[in-house]
Amino acid sequence: MTYDLLIGDCAYSSWSLRGWLLFDAFGLPVRARHTRMYSDEFARDLAAWAPARTVPTVRTPEGGLWTDSLAIAEGLAEAHPEAGHWPADPVARAAARSLVAEMHSGFTALRGACPMNLRVKSGGFTPSDAVLTDLARIETLWSHARTLASDGPWLFGAYGAADAFYAPVAMRIAGYGLPVSPDAQRYVDAHLSHGALRRWRAMGEAQDRTLDVYEVHAPTERFPMPAPLPARARPDGPSVNAACPYSGKAVTHFLEFEDRIWGFCNAFCRDKTVADPGAWPAFTAMAARA
C-alpha cells in the first residue's frame, strides 16, 4: 500500500515539508516526486494531478487525491490509526487538531516576513510587532500542548501531526534567529535534530537550487542544524557495495565516507547522502555492516 506524493523544492516549500513528514516521520510507504516551483515544470507536473493546484498533493493507492496538507493528515490518520498521527487521549487529540487548524489558517505575519529557507540562516532581521504577536501566540499554543503531554520532546509527548505542521515554524525561528523562550527553543532544537527533518534538508541541499524570491538577510550563516558527518562526492568507484542502499539498483555514482567508497544509483541519491550521511538509516546500516 504505497502512496504517491508530489512535493516542491525541499529547501523552500514549507507545505511540502509538512506533507512529507506525515509519511516519513511515521514510517508510511510513499513514492515522492519532486517538482520545481517558479518554473514551467510546476504547472506541467500539477496538470497530471488535477484538480490539485498546489503542493503537497497525494494520490492514494485506491486512486483518490488528497490535495491539501490537512486532508493528508486526516486521510493518513484514518487509514493508519496505528501510526499515531493524533494523540490517543481525547483531550490531547482535540488540542492537537486545534493547533494544526490554527497553523493551517493563521500566522500570516510570520509566514510573510520569514519565508522558509533551509539553505542559510539569515542575519540582521528585526521582527515586526505583528511577527512578535504571532510568536507569542505560537508559544501560548506550544505551552498549552505541553500541559497535556506525556514524556517526550514533542508537543504531545510522542511525535505527531501537530509537530509535522509546526516543523516549518520551528525552521523559521531557527533560520531567522527569532526571539523565543528557553522552553520554545528546546522544542525548536528537537526539530533541528530530528532525523526526518535532517533528511528533508539534505534533499534540498542535493537539489542545490537557489530561489531568489525567498529573500535572505545579510549576514548569512550556515543553517543551524547539527554538523553532518564528513563525506564527499567521488567521480568513480569501485565501491564497497554493488547496489544502491535506497533503490537496490546497480551503482553509477559514488561518494567517500570514512575512508571507503560507496555507490548509488543516481546523483540525487549520492548527493543527499553527502549532505548528511548520518540522517539516512539505509546508508548507515549498510556502512555498519560492511
Keywords:
Glutathione S-transferase Yfyf (Class Pi), Chain A, domain 2, single chain, 11% strand, Glutaredoxin, 290 residues, four-stranded mixed sheet
Task: Describe the protein in words.
- By secondary structure, the protein is of the alpha+beta class.
- The chain folds into 3 domains: 3-83, Glutaredoxin; 90-197, Glutathione S-transferase Yfyf (Class Pi), Chain A, domain 2, CATH 1.20.1050; 232-289, no CATH class.
- It is 44% helix and 11% strand.
- It has a 4-stranded mixed beta sheet with strand order 2-1-3-4. Strands 7-8-9 form a 3-stranded antiparallel beta sheet.
- A hairpin with a 5-residue loop joins strand 3 and strand 4.
- The model has no long low-confidence stretch (mean pLDDT 97).
In helices, the fraction of residues equals 40-55%
Mean pLDDT across residues = 97
Q: Using the CA coordinates, give the radius of gyration.
A: 19 Å
Strand proportion = 5-15%
Decide which structural class fits the backbone. alpha+beta
Any idea of the CATH topology of the largest domain? Answer: Glutathione S-transferase Yfyf (Class Pi), Chain A, domain 2
Q: For the terminal residues, how far apart are their CA atoms?
A: 31 Å
- The count of strands amounts to 9
Tell me the domain tally: 3
Main sheet summary: 4 strands, mixed
Low-confidence stretches: none
In summary, what is this structure?
This protein is α+β, with helices and mostly antiparallel strands and 290 residues long.
Helix/strand layout:
Elements: E1 3-7, H1 14-24, E2 30-34, H2 40-47, E3 57-59, E4 65-66, H3 69-79, H4 90-105, H5 108-113, E5 120-121, H6 129-147, H7 161-176, H8 182-192, H9 195-207, E6 221-222, E7 232-234, E8 253-257, E9 260-264, H10 267-275, H11 281-289
